[in-house]
Design goal:
alpha+beta, 10 helices, 16% strand, elongated
Length: 224
């Protein structure tokens, strides 16, 4: 049955307008983005198939172009539209993060980091640089690949902190494995960076690990 044949209150677009986006399932939200289905399937059916195939919204959003367009009904135009939506969301969260005190609005920072790092298939190490009022000066991806104590260089982070005249930093990296719990190497690296940055009076405010939609805060665990 086509969505236009559904009761008006159950159609995703009308449901969103009447009850707000939080009332919709992942498939219904994705169906609004897709707009139309394919032969024999409504947009909601197609959205459900996409979510089942990729496993989650996060994995769908971070699928490579070749993987995305290989799915029946998806093409380069739809991939470009999805990437544009995601980039607008990242930029909007980045603006929210920069507007206030990062310590008084940690959710904006963490939402930004989750969207930036959550679905990456290789490890990324980011640093959010803060001024003396804990306002965000910049957020930079500094290292990529398999992160160990030998591949993340404290000297480089110190140089960037001095370049931004930062008073504090929030460290962040992702675990593509999907497990947010830090390893012993993560703890060792955090201690090394805390010591190195402390020598130039830059405080490590937090080290946030992103694993899909999950996250781990060193600060909340009391490790900083």
């Amino acid at each position: 049955m086509a969505i236009t044949d559904w009761p008006e209150g159950e159609r995703p677009r009308e449901k969103l307008l009447q009850r707000g986006p939080a009332a919709l399932s992942d498939a219904e939200l994705l169906a609004i983005f897709l707009r139309v289905g394919v032969t024999g399937k409504s947009a909601v059916d197609l959205a459900r198939d996409l979510l089942q195939h990729f496993g989650s919204l996060t994995r769908l959003f971070n699928a490579a172009q070749a993987e995305f367009t290989a799915f029946p009904g998806m093409g380069p135009a739809k991939y470009a539209q999805l990437q544009a939506v995601l980039e607008m969301a990242r930029r909007a969260l980045g603006e929210d993060m920069k507007q206030g005190d990062a310590l008084n609005s940690p959710r904006a920072v963490r939402d930004y980091l989750r969207l930036r790092l959550g679905g990456r298939n290789h490890e990324i190490f980011m640093v959010v640089f803060l001024d003396a009022q804990n306002r965000v000066l910049a957020a930079e991806e500094l290292f990529r690949g398999t992160l160990t104590q030998t591949s993340v260089y404290p000297r480089e982070i110190v140089i960037h902190a001095l370049r931004h005249n930062a008073a504090g930093v929030i460290l962040a990296h992702n675990h593509p494995s999907g497990v947010a719990e830090p390893s012993q190497a993560d703890r060792w690296l955090t201690d090394q960076l805390k010591t190195a940055l402390g020598l130039v009076d830059v405080k490590v405010i937090d080290h946030f690990i992103v694993a899909g939609s999950d996250g781990f805060s060193f600060c909340e665990r009391g490790w900083l």
